[in-house]
Design a protein that fits this description.
alpha/beta; 3 helices; repeat; serine O-acetyltransferase activity; Hexapep; Trimer_LpxA-like_sf; about 25% helix; Hexapep_transf_CS; UDP N-Acetylglucosamine Acyltransferase, domain 1
């Protein structure tokens, strides 16, 4: 998998490996008994040890990269495209009023301590700067920065 080549460290490689195998549980009927152990590993290793909360049923495309994988929380209703890069202390989730979560298109890059909240779409090629909270849809190739972000 190209994710392992792109992953910047052992912790990132382990977290992605465990998630992908746990995610396979949802897709495979034949291997369910074998893959169940990775659902447990996703809970124990990724959540409790690494502080990375990505439910095994989350839809994440290939090429997913976590730089400095710690404190990452992704809601299971979120959809993440291909070649998305996420950094430490990032939250991708719903707004608490409904269950709708962000959709992140391909080739999006998120800085450290980014919050993506609610029923929003980040267009392909978008970048979100460190410490930014995004609550509105971004068009393709947008750059969002700052508190109460502004689009450049």
């Amino acid at each position: 998998m190209k994710e392992f080549k792109k992953a910047p460290g052992l912790k990132s490689k382990i977290a992605i490996f465990i998630f992908r195998l746990a995610n396979g549980y949802e897709k495979s009927s034949l291997l369910k008994p074998v893959l169940f152990i990775f659902i447990v590993a996703n809970k124990v290793i990724n959540e409790f040890i690494f502080s990375i909360e990505i439910p095994h049923s989350t839809k994440i495309g290939p090429g997913f990269v976590m730089n400095h994988p710690h404190g990452i929380v992704i809601n299971k209703a979120s959809v993440i495209g291909e070649n998305v890069k996420v950094r430490q202390f990032t939250t991708i989730g719903n707004n608490g009023k409904n269950k709708k979560s962000p959709i992140i298109c391909d080739n999006v890059e998120l800085g450290a301590n980014v919050n993506l909240i609610g029923n929003i779409i980040l267009g392909a090629g978008s970048k979100v700067g460190a410490g930014t909270t995004v609550t509105k849809t971004l068009s393709a190739n947008s750059i969002a920065i700052g508190c109460g972000f502004r689009v450049l």
